[in-house]
Design a protein that fits this description.
globular
């Protein structure tokens, strides 16, 4: 598993590795409005691990 600081900004590939999914899955979640805590910086999606952790803990990441 990728080791990063919880306050570090990571890209979509790193976020996918952190969550154990493929980058395409994260893009699909964003497109489908799954409330992924993603921030657009220029043309790239950026994430904070602490926000991803909170999102998973909230249950919003659960598949429907």
């Amino acid at each position: 598993m990728l080791e990063v600081s919880n306050d570090k900004w990571i890209n979509i590939d790193e976020a996918a590795e952190y969550l154990g999914v493929k980058p395409g899955t994260i893009r699909d979640w964003i497109r489908k409005g799954k409330e992924v805590p993603a921030h657009k910086v220029g043309k790239q999606w950026k994430f904070k691990c602490s926000e991803l952790d909170n999102w998973v803990a909230s249950g919003k990441s659960a598949m429907e």
